[in-house]
Design brief:
It contains seven helices and six strands, in the order H-E-E-E-H-H-E-H-E-H-H-H-E. By secondary structure, the protein is an alpha/beta fold. 35% of the residues are buried.
């Protein structure tokens, strides 16, 4: 996983002609990997979208209690590494599965993807809370999928607890080389 993440980090920087360091967040199935520079050691969180969904979400959508238990676990993992991440670097994610999350925020894409403010992620999470309480997901234009929910949760907690005010979600279909 680390070699794949390192390669994706370098390729992202090259493709977008990024010259400043970035923080790259890779929310994978079984773990989440964070890289703050190509030379830095990758930081691993023991939460991934499939692992989180399988461990905590017994219902679709999850119940509020299931979500609260998942939040506590993800929060613990994120805060464990908070002193090891340089939050001065912009936050980037590059995963085709995140396009639905970006689109659900309502933020318009640019040529490379989406620049999404933390407030937009929080609003999306609040809308999802309404779905957990019984509102139809279609009313909120949110995919009813526990993997989507786990990705949203991990990204939200990462941004919230590390103080990221925005995130760049790269549209990999717009960048053929990614």
């Amino acid at each position: 996983m680390t070699n794949e993440t390192e390669g994706a980090y370098r390729q992202l920087c090259d493709t977008l002609a990024l010259t400043l360091p970035i923080t790259f967040l890779d929310i994978a199935a079984e773990q989440t990997v964070v890289m703050s520079s190509p030379d830095a050691e990758a930081l691993r969180l023991a939460v991934g979208y499939e692992k989180t969904a399988a461990t905590f979400f017994r219902h679709l959508p999850p119940t509020p209690d299931e979500m609260e238990r998942a939040i506590m676990t993800v929060e613990d993992e994120v805060t464990r590494i908070r002193h090891q991440v340089d939050t001065q670097h912009p936050l980037y994610l590059c995963d085709p599965a995140l396009a639905s999350l970006a689109e659900a925020t309502g933020v318009s894409a640019n040529a490379h993807g989406w620049h999404i403010e933390q407030d937009d992620i929080e609003r999306l999470f609040k809308r999802f809370e309404q779905v957990m309480l019984g509102r139809p997901a279609s009313w909120e234009a949110i995919p009813l999928d526990n993997a989507f929910t786990a990705r949203l949760l991990i990204l939200r907690e990462f941004m919230h607890h590390l103080g990221y005010l925005s995130v760049f979600i790269v549209n990999t279909t717009a960048s053929e080389s990614l």
